[in-house]
Write a structure and sequence with these properties.
With 396 residues, the protein is an alpha/beta fold. The protein has two domains: 119 residues, Aspartate Aminotransferase, domain 1, CATH 3.90.1150.10; 241 residues, Aspartate Aminotransferase, domain 2 (3-Layer(aba) Sandwich), CATH 3.40.640. The protein contains 13 helices and 17 strands. A hairpin with a 5-residue loop joins strand 8 and strand 9. Helix 10 runs parallel beside helix 12.
């Protein structure tokens, strides 16, 4: 018999009652250190005081009016994002997938508006994850997400990640743009090299294409700069963000230059919920913290500390950890054992992590993580690696 909640998730038999900073608590009082952050969503940890106060204050005033009217909080958040990034304009959504849908439509609309309606194809990369809508699973191109949902939405050409020759070969008369994650999160915390990303930017300029970035997982300080592309020396034309920008509240956005957004006029795109007053209050509250002087310096320092500890564990347990990947506080352990086994062993030690493709375990703590929590996580990982290094009869 089917459950009342559609059984599309393989859930752990674990439920939490409350959270506090980097910790989660069950209804029986068991404490877990959360280094998954709700899949990179809880940017500032759980129940951050500024976010809680903002939510209460806005919740007592106004939740939703629709985009038929001006929304001052939306205008403020857009202005702040524009001031802090390459973008000239912002469209607000409820999720990363919706932000990617807007991105895809904008890339196509740009070419049509410029007199090239035949240009609609977008080059994407093997191992990518862009969401669960029909268009975004086609953009990601992974068979496990496409199976059973009919013909794949046309217009996406996948090439191997990091293969510049394959990108060049894929550019044709119907190509509109290139869409890439600076670091593939779901795909195994695989980072594109600065040289590769810069070459993509140059190809787009050479061929009149738009460069679109998916920074849903890497954005809003996760990699130690406000957005990952800042450290790569490139500027996109369009960028999708979500996850961390709401600090746990459903919020996404599509950022673009004026040139890229020229065709997106009144009526070309919309959202009923997107950018409502409650979501905008939360987005502004997150930026209050992330844009505060010194905050990103602390993120970079925490990242350095955590990466050093993980590198030491890799050296100590080479039979378990093959490689440490990632940037900032989006890190991955490429495993020589099953990544599921390591995730489960860590959960038994009350440390929450997230699995990813390419047999990787993602380490995604809140950006507010401190030395004590890093030390606690390191001890848990060391214990789990030691257990997985033993013969099964001894580990039991």
């Amino acid at each position: 018999m089917i459950t009342p909640v559609l059984p599309t998730y393989a859930r752990a038999d674990l439920a939490f009652e409350r959270g506090d900073g980097p910790y989660l608590f069950t209804d029986t009082g068991e404490r877990y250190l959360d280094f998954g952050s709700g899949i990179a969503v809880n940017l500032l940890g759980h129940a951050h005081p500024h976010l809680v106060a903002t939510l209460k204050a806005q919740g007592e005033k106004l939740w939703h009016v629709s985009n038929l009217f001006r929304i001052p909080g939306q205008e403020r958040l857009a202005e702040r994002l524009v001031a802090a990034t390459f973008a000239d304009t912002v469209f607000f959504t409820n999720s990363g997938a919706e932000a990617l849908e807007c991105t895809i439509k904008m890339v196509r609309k740009y070419q049509s508006h410029a007199g090239h309606p035949e240009k609609f194809r977008i080059i994407t990369f093997e191992g990518a994850f862009h969401g669960r809508t029909l268009a975004t699973i086609a953009a990601g191109g992974q068979a496990k997400y496409l199976e059973g949902f009919g013909p794949k939405v046309d217009g996406f050409d996948q090439v191997p990640f990091g293969d510049l020759a394959a990108v060049k070969a894929a550019i044709g008369p119907e190509t509109a743009g290139i869409l890439i994650e600076p670091i593939q999160g779901e795909g195994g915390v695989r980072a594109g090299s600065p040289e590769f990303l810069r070459a993509l930017r140059a190809l787009c300029d050479e061929h009149g294409l738009l460069l679109a970035l998916d920074e849903v997982q890497t954005g809003v300080g996760r990699t130690g700069t406000l957005f990952a592309h800042e450290r790569l020396g490139i500027t996109p034309d369009v960028m999708a963000i979500a996850k961390g920008i709401g600090g746990g509240f459903p919020l996404g956005a599509c950022l673009a230059t004026e040139r890229a957004a020229a065709g997106m006029t009144a009526g070309t795109h919309g959202s009923t919920y997107g950018g409502n007053p409650l979501a905008m209050a939360m987005g502004n509250a997150v930026l209050d913290v992330v844009l505060a002087p010194g905050f990103l310096d602390k993120v970079r320092n925490a990242s350095l500390r955590l990466k050093q500890q993980l590198a030491m564990l890799k050296d100590e347990y080479p039979g378990v950890i093959e490689e440490v990947r990632g940037d900032g506080l989006l890190l991955g352990l490429k495993c020589r054992v099953s990544n599921t086994d390591l995730v489960n062993a860590l959960r038994e030690r009350h440390l929450i992590t997230i699995s990813a493709g390419d047999n990787v375990v993602r380490i995604i703590p809140p950006l507010t993580v401190g030395e004590a929590e890093i030390a606690e996580a390191t001890a848990a990982i060391a214990s789990a690696c030691a257990a997985l290094s033993m013969p099964k009869d001894q580990a039991a």
